[in-house]
Amino acid sequence: MKIGVTGSDGLLGFHIRAFLHASKDSRQIRLANRATFQDAGALDEFVSGLDALIHCAGMNRGGDAEVERVNCWLAETLIASLERTGAKPRIVFANSTHFDRDTGYGRGKRKAGEQLVAWGGRMGVSVSNVILPHIFGEFGRPFYNSVVSTFCHQLANGETPCIHVDGGLELVHAQEVAELFMQLIRSQAEGEGRIHRIAGQPLKVSELLELLNEFRDKYEHGIIPAFRDVFQVRLFNVLRSYKFPQAYPRRLALHSDARGSLFEAVKSEGGGQTFLSSTGQGITRGNHFHLRKVERFLVIDGEGEIRLRRLFSNDVISFRVTGRAPSYVDIPNFYTHSITNVGDGNLQTLFWTNEIFNPADSDTFPEIVLP
Predict the structure, then answer these.
(1) How far is the C-alpha of 60 from the C-alpha of 292, rounded, in Å?
(2) Long-range Cβ pairs for the range 312-316 (8 Å, 24+)
(3) Measuring CA to CA, how many Å separate 281 from each of 15, 284, 326, 329?
(4) For 31, which of 8, 169, 186, 338 could close a Cys bridge (C-beta 3.0–4.6 Å)?
(5) Cα gap 120→122, rounded to integer Å
(6) Which ranges of 221-297 does DSSP label H, i.e. alpha helix?
């Protein structure tokens, strides 16, 4: 299946790419950004032969007239390319709960959805017009994508967030959106466009900040909080992503006396699973990434090098760790990672995750750190 994703440089676009990248299905993924829309030839090449198209590209900041114009222009330009090439992919359009508001953004998203659905009706192609609530996720831009991104950035950098309006939110993680989009693509049948609404987690801005403050305070004291549900795990993962890489490796207090030494490896209110591995000289473990887990690497004996690379990036981050000075690295999601024995003897490493390993749903996807 050939799947195209517009707005691939944005928050949702990244998470859709990551979701597809982790999938075991055989797919060809094509990406389009704003520059693609400026080049008719590039856009035609992008849409030609697509089986499905996820349209995330949009503008949500700026003057009302400009925001409305750009969102309409993106849909019009996409449709013109589809008609020039004769491509008839199933379409999923990332719309917004603002679509029924009389603002530039609301009008632009509403008209874009109407244009795509009308094209689908003429062509006999399925178009899913998906109304999205407030999306959050790792790598969101603070003061732009989401209040979650803004608060997490501020808390991770020792700043004090300020609430201007304590309004209601409905939050959904970008990975959940990506999963739904693929379900829609797989289930779409030819016919008229349909409107789908995604329900998020409802809470007030003050409740969000209270929860993030609680997570931050516990984490600063070395405690992994207990999570009531998947939403809280997602929120905690986003918060800690803003502390990477500057907060790691994190040195543990080593208590020594005549009997020997002791340190606290993991303090978790919610359990989890611990693994202990022995790795020979020059051997590397890992080379995989996760989409949801909280995972800790802690060398207890020997010399190791932890390497990480964010998906779709070539930049590798390295941490040298040793059992002589126990320090842990909490692995961020969407970073492929490995640990190599760089010492003269065996490497003993403790691994901890917040969930018990399930081979049927391991959340572990192979990816070489050093391509």
Answers:
(1) 28
(2) 312/14, 312/17, 312/21, 314/371, 316/369, 316/370
(3) 36, 9, 19, 21
(4) 8
(5) 5
(6) 230-241
Q: Which residue has the tokens 């800690």?
A: 240
Rg (CA), the chain: 23
Asked if residues 22 and 363 have their Cβ atoms less than 8 Å apart, the reply is no
Q: Which two tokens stand for residue 148?
A: 């979650």
353: its two tokens: 């995750």
Query: So what's the pLDDT on residue 26?
Result: 62
The string of pLDDT tens digits covering residues 225-282 is 999 999 999 999 999 999 999 999 999 999 999 999 999 999 999 999 999 999 999 9
> Which residues are CB-neighbours of 147 under 8 A, at least 6 positions away?
134, 169, 205, 208
Identify the pLDDT of residue 190.
46
Is the pLDDT at 192 greater than 60? The verdict is: no
Q: Which helix H or strand E contains 196, and what residues bound it?
A: strand 194-197
CA–CA dist 102, 353 (Å, integer) = 46
Q: Nearest CA to 11 among 109, 108, 112, 138?
A: 138
State the Cα–Cα distance between residues 61 and 66, nearest whole angstrom.
9
> Around Cβ 34, how many Cβ atoms within 10 Å?
15
Nearest C-alpha neighbor of 243 from the set 325, 153, 323:
153
DSSP annotation of 114: H
Task: Extract the tokens encoding 328.
Answer: 């842990």
Instruction: Report whether the peptide linkage leading into residue 359 is cis, meaning its omega lies within 30 degrees of zero.
Output: no
- Looking at the DSSP bridge assignments, the partners of residue 55 are 6, 93
* Distance, CA of 31 to CA of 40 (rounded, Å): 15
Q: Give the pLDDT mean for 289-314.
A: 98
Q: What's the chain's length in residues? A: 371
